[in-house]
Amino acid sequence: MSRILKVFEEFPESGIVKRRSPDILRARSLFDEAEKRWNFLDELKKKVDLSDENANYFIEPSYDILIGLIRAKLLADGFSSSGDGAHEAEVAYMQNLNFPESDVRFMNDLRYFRNGIKYYGKEFGSDYAKKVLAFLNRMYPNLKEVVEGSI
Hints:
Low-confidence stretches: none
CATH superfamily: Nucleotidyltransferases  domain 2
CATH topology: Four Helix Bundle (Hemerythrin (Met), subunit A)
């Protein structure tokens, strides 16, 4: 189920994204935090078997890791996002980083579902969590490389 995502250029027009000086220090901090989260999730996966009961606890940090890297790249490139729609803008920025549309769509769905977990108590099963973890494992090295080239 894919949600319609605006193109990134629409977000500055609406004020959700603002042009600013590149913030390399903050980008580096977000990058480092994503790496710590990645390592922690790796430890968690080794110690806790994924199940329907704990699937959300694997999905949510996966999203946080990826959005943290995207946000770091946004800041390094001289943008900031805030307010209602900020996460959507950050996901849309993946289009500008030349990620395949299918990956952008998956990340946008993940954004939507993570919002459901965080704010509405939505629960997901282990099947979806496995897809998210596979996506994280594939995307993390790519996003990490993109960000490292900017900081």
